[in-house]
Amino acid sequence: MARARRTSGFLRDFQEFAFKGNVIDLAIAVIIGTAFSRVITSFVEAVIMPLINPLIGVTGKELRTIAIGPGIVIGQFLGAIIDFLTIALILFVAIRALQKLKRQEDVPVESLTSDANVIAQERLTGALDRLSQTLESRNNQVL
């Protein structure tokens, strides 16, 4: 019976963990990230690499197929670096654009406390409250 309670407790804890919003959001982000990575790899192979291949000076070879010695394909590593840099650049530009949009939305709301008279009144009210409390505490001590 104790084992059944432990199992049901474990399942309940796992269910709470698995269906929290953060875990589901993370799963969605991983799936979208994987798809985004495939799109970037395709973009690099189809658009960027045809522009870079003539610059590397190795005729008849693509960057991703360049090898140093037997079995060391340095081109795949360089292609992965280009993929990473492309993803980083796109994310940087997208996040920067979102930050600019957010800054435009966060227009400061002018509050009533910006008026000098209101600020002075609030300070005076606070000082009067503190003075009243001090006087009351002295009166209580004298009695």
Summarize the structure.
This protein is mainly α and 143 residues long. It has four helices and no strands. The protein has helices at residues 2-18, 21-56, 74-105, 116-142.
Plain-language structure description:
The chain is mainly alpha-helical and 143 residues long. The protein has two domains: 2-105, Orthogonal Bundle (Non-ribosomal Peptide Synthetase Peptidyl Carrier Protein, Chain A), CATH 1.10.1200; 115-143. 78% of the residues lie in helices and 0% in strands. It has helices at residues 2-18, 21-56, 74-105, 116-142. Helix 2 (21-56) packs across helix 3. It is elongated. The termini are far apart. The model has no long low-confidence stretch (mean pLDDT 79).
Protein traits:
143 residues, mainly alpha, Non-ribosomal Peptide Synthetase Peptidyl Carrier Protein, Chain A, 2 domains, elongated
Helix content: over 70%
Distance between the termini: 68 Å
Task: Quote the average pLDDT.
Answer: 79
Total helix count?
A: 4
Number of strands: 0
Principal-axis shape equals: elongated
What profile does the largest beta sheet have?
Answer: none
CATH class of the largest domain: Mainly Alpha
Low-confidence residue ranges: none
CATH A-level architecture of the largest domain: Orthogonal Bundle
The assigned structural class equals: mainly alpha
Q: What is the string of SSEs from the N terminus onward?
A: HHHH
**Gyration radius, rounded:** 33 Å
Count the domains. 2
CATH domain topology of the largest domain: Non-ribosomal Peptide Synthetase Peptidyl Carrier Protein, Chain A
Query: Which percent band covers the strand fraction?
Result: under 5%
Quaternary class: single chain
